[in-house]
Each structure stands twice: as C-alpha cells, then as structure tokens.
C-alpha cells in the first residue's frame, strides 16, 4: 500500500511539473490567435525591468546599416525633436501585427519631429527570415516609410535593453529615454486599442510634460541571439 502511495505521488508530481512547464518560444510566438485577456492587458501596464537604459538616461548614438545599404545614426536627424526607436523584425507574428501601426506612427509623427527608427536585433543565422535581404523584401512589400536598420553585431539592442519584438524606446531631443515598452494595449487587434502608449507619450513630450505611464511591458517575441 505504501509503495502504491509513493508511485501515485511521483506520478502526480510529474504531471503537475508538466502542466507548469513554460511554453517554448515557438509555442508562445505561434499562440497569437487568442484575444488578449484582461490579465494580458494588465500585464502590459507593468514595467519590465531590463539591463539596458532606464527612464531619464541618455542613449548613446549608433551607426547601423539601413535597407538601402547606407549607414544611419541618430546624428543624421539634426532637426529631430525625438525618436521612436522600435526594435522589430520580419518573422515575429506580433511584429507583423504592428507593422501597419508602426507605419502610421512614422507617417503621423515624423513630420512633427519624431521619426521611427526601426531596428532588427535578431541574428539571421538563428532566424533566416530576418536576414538583411528579407528585411529589404519585407520593407518593399509593406511600403515602409522609415529606416529599417540591422543590428548586425547585436551590440545596440543590449544597450537599450530590448527583449522583445516589437519593443519601443521613445527618446527626447537630448536622446534621453522618456518611455519604454509596448505601442498600445491591443497587440492582436488594432480596432480594440483603448490605450495608445506611444502616441500619448509623444503628446506629453510635445506639451513639455513627462509621459505617464513612462513604461509598460513589451509583448512580443524574444530577441534571437547568436548561439
């Protein structure tokens, strides 16, 4: 009887461990057809701790290759009042969901001094869909109106602390970080957006105010690093 109880306890423990095991990146990235729950939306409002820049810190300039082959840095925008630095990519379902919204953000705010600077942080050896050639193809297909840069050596995204695609870092005119996180509160359905975090943050800066909230949790795929 005692042996039977031990066997049952062991089986129960293994079952619970399997139930609690975290999903793989592939599973998490594929599970995008379920509408976000209230808990998902609440989670987006929780700031995400990163090893990169914090609110108020000045971001160092960088020089990365754009899809047109030219090297681009923030210093190339002397008239900018700020920057929407968005780490994104080709393959991630969440990044794809936000492509049209990123285009809209650039078209709406670049003329007001806040251009989108899109950066692909992924290693194409890990995810071939995120190669430079595929970046060029995707930009052409979608009609990107903003620069789309490749963090080829993967040295820029760790400085920012980007962990997801997409992941936004809003900089002011002095390149100080004023907002970090998600674009809005509805990744999967633009028609259900009720909080436009980036737009609200830009509006605050344009009014000489501090964004509130100044950070949210980015929802997306993990950055794919060199193995």
Please tally the helical runs, counting DSSP H or I stretches of 4 or more residues. 7
Helical fraction equals 25-40%
Examine the coordinates and then state which fold CATH places here, giving the name of the CATH topology.
Glutaredoxin
DSSP E strands, number:
9
What class would the helix/strand composition place it in?
alpha+beta
- Overall 3D shape: globular
End-to-end Cα distance, whole Å, is 50 Å
Structure characterization notes:
This protein has 227 residues and is an alpha+beta fold. It has a single domain (36-222), classed as Glutaredoxin, CATH 3.40.30.10. Helix content is 33%, strand content 15%. The chain has helices at 2-20, 25-30, 38-44, 93-109, 132-142, 156-160, 197-206, and strands spanning 64-66, 71-72, 82-87, 116-120, 147-150, 164-165, 167-172, 177-181, 221-222. A seven-stranded mixed beta sheet has the order 2-1-5-4-3-7-8, covered by helices on one side. The chain has a two-stranded antiparallel ribbon with strand order 6-9. Helix 4 links the parallel strand 3 and strand 4. The radius of gyration is 20 Å and the shape is globular. Residues 1-47 have low confidence and may be disordered.
